[in-house]
Design goal:
Length: about 80
């Protein structure tokens, strides 16, 4: 089986060829994977452009997970 190496935040994961973005995030950190599923975080590529969790990865891809800020009802605007 052919594998690809992907960089997620400060780590490296090796995945089977054809893996998707969400698999890389879950492999790196399952809690971040849950946040992606819940919509409380999103993923960007090395350029800072948001990518879909279902996008297929290429070897050497660089991903960043961004946790969305949550604001309480009494937060300043």
């Amino acid at each position: 089986m052919c594998t690809i190496r992907v960089f997620v935040n400060s780590g490296v994961v090796d995945l089977p060829a054809g893996a998707v973005v969400s698999e890389a995030v879950r492999t790196f950190d399952s809690t971040l994977g849950e946040r992606i599923t819940a919509g409380t975080a999103y993923i960007t590529d090395a350029r800072g452009i948001e990518v879909a969790p279902t996008d297929t990865l290429a070897s050497g891809a660089i991903l960043r997970v961004v946790v969305r800020a949550r604001r309480g009802h009494d937060a300043d605007t």
